[in-house]
Amino acid sequence: MVKKPQFALVRPVPNSYVDYYARKGRTIDGQLAAEQHEQYVTALEATGLTVTRVAPDERYPDGVFIEDTAIVCQGRALVVNMQNADREGEQGGVEEVLRSTHTIVRLPKGAMLDGGDVMRIDDTFYVGMSERTNAAGFSAVKNFASGLGMRAVDVPVRHCLHLKTGASYLGNGTLLAATEWIDTNRFEVEHVIATGEGEEGAANTLRIGDHLLAVEGYPQTASRLRAFTDRHGVQLKLLPMSEFKKGDGSLTCLSIIW
Ligand code: CIR
């Protein structure tokens, strides 16, 4: 049984987020992004988490997706190397904050990993082998896991950015997955709930204690999640994520939780 987390780190949206995606032809409403981020923080606080904000750094437009920078577990933080050259360096500001509460472990040179590829289920880290995470990155998670009495299992990721873009753990032995994207046979879980048809974007959810946060705008998946939360006495909260979806992110990406 994983104990209920108490703390979260988030990183507010830098102004450079809007310009960065404008250059890629994606129009982001900066004001709306900031509001959605605040709603997200409020939702985290409503679950009982104490939330700390890491100062944004304008040099890193994607810094809001703080999840990718470090894996935290049992007082240790595995700080990553980022494959995406525009992002490499953003982990520095996060490491500075984590240092006061965690023992820092760094990925070896050449090992690449994004936190969005790491899904913890009980004593297992499932690691997505995506374009962002290489074999040396997986080995680093394996070593990190074994130091904690845990293990790591690799999962191919070919159809989406990160493992958790296509699947997330709902708790109660249940995985939510976009089954066209992720091979759920890799997971030792009792149940799999598939996202609704054409609703792959709903696969990323965030379970915190008796709360489940999910992305609004996916009605078929929401009704499947509602059946799950009703059965297990969990409160479901749907959140708007449009301005983070445009940056290829979603719910888990916006925090590091322990
Ligand atoms: C990136 O390409 O790295 C960002 N635009 C999106 C990162 C999303 N993070 C996540 O899914 N954990």
Major beta sheet summary:
3 strands, mixed
Bound molecules: citrulline
- What is the alpha-carbon Rg in Å? 17 Å
Query: For the residues shown, what is the average pLDDT?
Result: 97
The proportion of strand residues reads: 15-25%
Oligomeric category: single chain
Number of DSSP-assigned strands? 15
Low-confidence blocks of residues: none
Rough shape?
A: globular
Side-by-side strand order of the widest sheet: 2-1-15
Helix fraction bin: 25-40%
Output the number of helix runs. 7
Written as H for each helix and E for each strand, in order along the chain, the element string is EHHEEEHEEEHEHEEEEEHEHE
Task: Supply the helix-strand structural class.
Answer: alpha/beta
Ends distance:
14 Å
How are the elements arranged and paired?
Layout: E1 7-10, H1 16-22, H2 30-46, E2 50-53, E3 70-73, E4 76-79, H3 91-98, E5 103-106, E6 118-121, E7 124-129, H4 135-147, E8 151-156, H5 163-166, E9 167-171, E10 174-177, E11 191-194, E12 206-208, E13 211-215, H6 219-232, E14 235-239, H7 242-245, E15 256-257
Parallel strand pairs: 1-2, 4-5, 7-8, 10-11, 13-14
Antiparallel strand pairs: 1-15, 3-4, 6-7, 9-10, 12-13
The site of citrulline has 14 residues, from loops.
Give a verbal description of the structure.
The protein is α/β, with parallel strands linked by helices and 258 residues long. Helices cover 26% and strands 25% of the residues. The chain has helices at 16-22, 30-46, 91-98, 135-147, 163-166, 219-232, 242-245; strands at 7-10, 50-53, 70-73, 76-79, 103-106, 118-121, 124-129, 151-156, 167-171, 174-177, 191-194, 206-208, 211-215, 235-239, 256-257. It has a 3-stranded mixed sheet with strand order 2-1-15, covered by helices on one side. The site of citrulline (CIR) has 14 residues, from loops.
